[in-house]
Predict the 3D structure of the following.
Amino acid sequence: MNFLWISLLTLAILIFGTLIMRLIKRSVRRKKAGPVSSSGTLQDAAKNLDLRIMLKLSSHFDSNFNNIDRPFWQVANEGIVVKFTKDETPHFVYYKLDGEWNYTLRSFNGEVLPEALSKLVRAKFRLYAISCTEEIVFSDSESKTYILHLHQGNKYKELIIDNNEMIVINEKEL
């Protein structure tokens, strides 16, 4: 009877060990698809992607963003991001792993909104200052989405404006 228990325990340990080894191997494979080296050139990103995807990325990026000095390309498990600054404004262009454009985010200091949206925000949060505006353009939408960071003294709010609908997504006292 003891021999049976020892055999079952040994078998369980072997199965568990094999499972752990598979998880470790899977983890190592995912890490290889992680961020590229610190230089961040398109050639560095190409090391982790096939040629067809790189051509698709390059074609979209070059046709939509002209005269960009030293874009930083980074490949991660969830996609590809290209970071650059144009006209002193940080840009982040996100692509899916298959090379499809997903969205572009631009980050501005202060308030950078169309006049109608600015009036909407000012009517509701007239005592708050806007410290940062993030403009997001999604691939499946013609309209822009905005995330606003507002503060008044030690009060802080984050708003999202999408299709002229304004929602407070974060609110706290600092």
